[in-house]
Amino acid sequence: MTFLPIVGRELRVAARRRGTYWVRFGVALAAILISGWMLLTLPSAGAGARPSGLGIFCVLASLGFVFCLTAGMGATADCLSAEKRDGTLGLLFLTDLRGYDVVLGKLAATSLGALYSLLTILPVIALPLLLGGVNPRAVALVGGALLNTLLFSLAAGMLVSAVSRDERKAGTGTAALILLIAGILPLLGAILEESATWPWRRQWAWFLYLPSPGFAFGKALQLAGSPGAAADYWWSLLTVHGEVWLFLGLACGILPRTWSERALAAAKPGGGRARWQQWCYGNAIEKRRLRERLLEINPITWLCGRNRFSRAAPWLFLLFVALGWIAGYWRVRGDWLAAPVDITFVLLLHGVLKYHLAGEACRRLAEDRRSGALELLLSTPLSTREIVQGQWTALRRQFAGPFLAVLVSDGFLLLAARQNSSLEPQDADRLTLMFMAGMIVLAADAFTLIWLGMWCGLRAATYTRAWSLTMFWALALPWVIFLVTVSTAGALELWRGPEGPGFDVLLVWWLSLNLGNDLIHFGRALGGLSKEFRTEAARRFQPGAGGGGWRFWKRR
Question: How far is CA 302 from CA 73, 298, 409, 529, 533, in A?
């Protein structure tokens, strides 16, 4: 038998795919544009000085690190779980293939684009060497850390995909695993190092730093400006590389035992699986009562709102965040109510809640379109308006309470920051305006994410792509435009006066960008859902089906 036959086949298929080359070209073009933009904007930071090679190098390397750390969520998180849902994974195990054949084959197929992208941005990251101020040895160390981070992210996605079947859970699980190792463990190490008093606290904190790929990357950036010992870098690099092989080994061992379809009805009575299903959907009497109550509202509302855990998930998240905030206040006391802490907390809370709302808004139509259930719904007496209205009602029932609770908490944090901080009256007024603008944008983004998520879920080829497009168009695009316009205008000296545009101008510009972006995408999604719903649902059977990023704007 040929060694690793699936790897060879998948590499040949990927080599013939146009997307493999377009992704590589697009990433390289984006890296060149970002570096060129930084060369234009950074000189204004100094009084006539030339741009700092070290500063540009650190920014480009940090962007590359973020790309490598998140690559697994888009590349490998759903590669094995998709095969399980389609029922094709079992066919592979009817042959004499082993778990490592399938895992390494899917890894080769899904990671080729990410690997090519990294290879294209490494020369761009090394360009600041020509400006000076960067240690050439550190460039090689940063390249090694980025490659190791990419492998770590891809391997984490493979492991979560091996134990998952649902696309949304696979992506969220991969993000949670990466966040745990790359973020939470170093945070615990920093808390231990700063708060503990026993003599071995630094050694224990060091062991918590090692598994994080960010530790090796940070050490490499430190060596970029000043030469020094790289022992910590190499220890972290080896530890993270060991995690890569551990994840792949676990995926190879788990996959042959989790590929088969296990009916929920076959769950052992009284077991954990049966209890979980009963908790999510209730017993027979509770199911009947919920069905009778929601069917009077809308059948789609019942279809989307049967799972009680989905409705309780936002409240559980808010409860977890509230307990964390209380623990922080108990530890820090008055400093925990300072304005910078409150602003960071609000941004994190808003971002996670919007992330969850975008995923739920995309999920139903994307999954129904993929499985063919959407065609069955369209063959019923339900109109497209009733289908859309039913999902809107379900999402409103699920998220209206949590978003209202977040708005109330924003007001509480604002009052706490004004009363417990030594702020000047002018700074307190600015803080109030900032919070009010954030609350307005939160409400506007919520409406836009619901309608845009349904529209992208109807058009995109996969649920993951629909989720990504929704987050980009609704949330990321205004921030990109704001940062690019503000920094470019400042570099080209378009602002009048020595002190720049001022806080009020920047806040109005940021608020206008977000509200204008929400209005445009809300109108486009609402018009598409009302006029092109059946056309987009039928496009699944046409050649070239699957909406890309710019197809969002394409009219028929």
Answer: 30, 7, 30, 20, 21
